[in-house]
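hiii so um. not sure if this is the right channel but i have a protein structure encoded as tokens and i wanna go backwards to a sequence. like what aa goes where. can anyone help
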């Protein structure tokens, strides 16, 4: 009995749902990410609301590249907690080795979708570690979040970048100017 394997077919809804579910399971509330967005953008847009921040976090999480990075990073963190990685990778991820930069590279794959503003926003929150990032980066709490802290910072930075792009397009529209294509991503 030779059964043929059905061709692989990605289910986009399942991937999107799994992304949100795993963020939640790992202790990340989307409101906490939106608070980072507010921190990054409030100075530039004083009338910015938490609702707008949440909307932009949601839009970022709809991107396939973001979902892939989230699921990959969380899986690596979980495998490190289980001691299931090969040495010396196990030790590097378990201890969030300062010279191990793959966690940041994965975060860059998220911010890269949103341009240079995303990179600068990410660098800022990665250095400052405000809010949820401080908690995720705390090595004394137990769970390993070597990848997750960078991923959450990248999602916030990307949502911030998305806001900046959209607000610029809105300004241009109000002035009757033509916006460049793809400014609202």
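sure thing!! here u go:
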């Amino acid at each position: 009995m030779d059964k043929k394997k059905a061709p692989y077919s990605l289910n986009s809804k399942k991937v999107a749902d799994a992304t949100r579910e795993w963020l939640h399971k790992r202790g990340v509330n989307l409101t906490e990410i939106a608070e980072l967005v507010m921190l990054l953008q409030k100075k530039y847009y004083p009338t910015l609301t938490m609702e707008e921040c949440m909307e932009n976090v949601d839009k970022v999480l709809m991107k396939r590249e973001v979902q892939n990075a989230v699921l990959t990073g969380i899986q690596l963190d979980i495998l490190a907690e289980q001691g299931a990685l090969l040495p010396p990778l196990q030790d590097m991820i378990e201890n969030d080795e300062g010279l191990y930069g793959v966690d940041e590279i994965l975060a860059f794959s998220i911010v890269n979708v949103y341009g240079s503003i995303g990179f600068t926003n990410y660098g800022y929150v990665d250095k400052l570690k405000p809010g949820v990032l401080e908690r995720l980066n705390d090595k004394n709490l137990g769970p390993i979040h070597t990848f997750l802290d960078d991923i959450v910072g990248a999602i916030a930075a990307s949502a911030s970048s998305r806001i900046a792009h959209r607000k610029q397009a809105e300004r241009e529209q109000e002035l009757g100017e033509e916006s460049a294509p793809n400014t609202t991503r």
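oh and The longest helix spans residues 148-174.
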